[in-house]
Design goal:
alpha+beta; five-stranded mixed β-sheet; five-stranded mixed β-barrel; 17 strands
């Protein structure tokens, strides 16, 4: 999970744009797609491999940020006649357009995943596919991997099926609109059930000791002729929608482990020292954490709209370090097998337009349900997938971290010498005069150094901005 997500609204300042261009070069970020890839994509659009089943009678809907066009998932939720629920979840069938070993496939293995910069994204697949023929856009008939997951009245999974089918979305919704309809009670049943099912799945998550971090999104907004940094707290509808994706990823993991071949998203349990450090951070931020309360239970009580809680939630993402992919074949027991944050076996399978591994997980699940061996091209790629995904994740992480630093420096570039109110959220153990501060306004988290006395962990501090130059110097503060 990213440390912080950032979006830029409106035209960014020239220094920020220049620094982001330089970052693309520094990280060797792929540029335009080669002509051979674009030509193959155009040909694939004209002649995709279409499934024989037709599920266009199901009125699917999508929920994504406003303006999104690379739509991986669509859902249709219903009640079962004998109690419980049925989740239909359509996932874009990228394999219907991509020839194994072809130009698109080769380029996807080079790119690994879509990269998100504040001023735009670098896609995994050509737009004619990811934003066109393969995307689950409304009022288009497209091939998909159609999941059918039956739940009992408590939200527990009782049956799983996945096969290829043609689907058709009827509505493209965004999170704010969904939340507004649910709060007003105007949502019709397929959408209204998102709250009901999502809440049940959150309750089950708590039972098994899992945790979903509602990390605020850091947003740069244009206001009063300048740029400001704000947090957007996740809505409940964001979390309920995420529970449908988590449900599918857990179902997929079970299918693959039962079949004996697959790829899991895994995360080892955090060491005691890491949790102990978080306890110190909570104390510093004034967040009560009784000793009998678990980390997972504490996080579920936090309001991401509160500045101190937001800072702590960002700090909690350190426990997600070490996540990776574990491949197993021919019935071997996967080691490790569990994702510690999910508290169960889990895999990535719901975003194949934006993440390479999901296409392979989907193929493995379709084969498992059909009682067939996985395609040769899937088995051949499995051994290298963890390494490729790790490389792609490292690059994506670098893009995100460096972009945060660039945006913060750009926002503060003309304020060097100013004094800000902040509080100390971290202190370096070996040198307590160096640490991290969280500013009251703007919502910046940055390094502080240069004082002669130890920093007061968890206390307020007046700090002076000593440097901020996008692309050259990260924002740096000194105690006043």
């Amino acid at each position: 999970m990213p440390r912080r997500q950032i979006r830029v609204s409106g035209a960014a300042e020239a220094p920020l744009r220049a620094a982001l261009r330089a970052l693309r070069t520094e990280l060797d970020v792929p540029g335009d797609f080669p002509p051979a890839v674009l030509a193959e994509a155009e040909a694939a659009v004209r002649a995709p491999r279409l499934p024989g089943r037709d599920a266009t009678d199901l009125p699917f809907l999508t929920i994504d940020p406003p303006g999104s066009t690379d739509l991986d998932q669509a859902m249709h939720l219903t009640r079962r006649a004998r109690g419980g629920y049925r989740v239909h979840y359509a996932i874009a069938d990228v394999a219907a357009f991509v020839t194994p070993g072809g130009a698109i496939d080769t380029e996807a293995h080079r790119r690994v995943q879509t990269l998100y910069f504040p001023d735009g994204r670098v896609p995994l697949h050509p737009a004619v596919l990811s934003e066109g023929a393969a995307s689950l856009l409304p009022d288009r008939t497209v091939p998909a991997l159609l999941w059918r997951i039956d739940l009992d009245a408590d939200g527990r999974r009782v049956a799983t099926d996945v096969h290829r089918a043609l689907v058709r979305s009827r509505a493209r919704l965004d999170y704010e609109g969904v939340q507004r309809r649910l709060d007003a009670g105007t949502a019709e049943e397929p959408l209204a059930l998102l709250r009901e099912i999502g809440t049940l799945r959150e309750r089950l998550e708590a039972e098994r000791g899992g945790i979903s971090l509602n990390v605020p999104e850091q947003e740069v907004v244009e206001r009063d002729g300048g740029y400001h940094l704000e947090y957007r707290a996740p809505r409940p509808a964001d979390a309920w929608n995420a529970q449908i994706s988590l449900l599918t990823g857990m179902a997929a993991a079970d299918l693959m482990t039962a079949a004996g071949t697959g790829v899991l998203r895994t995360l080892p349990t955090a060491p005691d020292g890491a949790v102990g450090r978080l306890r110190r951070s909570a104390e510093a931020l004034g967040i009560p954490w009784p000793h009998h309360v678990s980390y997972a239970a504490l996080v579920r009580t936090l309001d991401p709209r509160d500045t101190r809680n937001a800072a702590f939630l960002q700090d909690c993402t350190t426990l997600l370090r070490g996540a990776g992919y574990t491949v197993f074949t021919d019935g071997d027991t996967p080691v490790p097998a569990v994702h510690a944050a999910v508290a169960d076996e889990y895999t990535h399978c719901t975003a194949p337009l934006r993440r390479l591994v999901d296409r392979y997980a989907g193929e493995l699940c379709v084969a498992a349900v059909a009682g067939e061996e996985p395609p040769d091209w899937v088995r051949a790629a499995l051994p290298e997938l963890p390494r490729r995904m790790a490389e792609g994740s490292r690059r994506a992480g670098a893009v995100e971290r460096e972009s945060v630093d660039i945006v913060e420096a750009a926002l503060l570039a003309d304020r060097v010498g100013e004094v800000f109110d902040a509080y100390v959220v971290d202190v370096r153990e070996k040198d307590p005069t160096v640490g991290t501060v969280h500013l009251d306004e703007p919502a910046v988290v940055a390094r502080v150094e240069g004082g002669t006395r130890p920093l007061p962990l968890g206390e307020r501090l007046r700090v002076r901005l000593t440097q901020a130059d996008p692309g050259r110097e990260k924002a740096l503060f000194a105690p006043v």
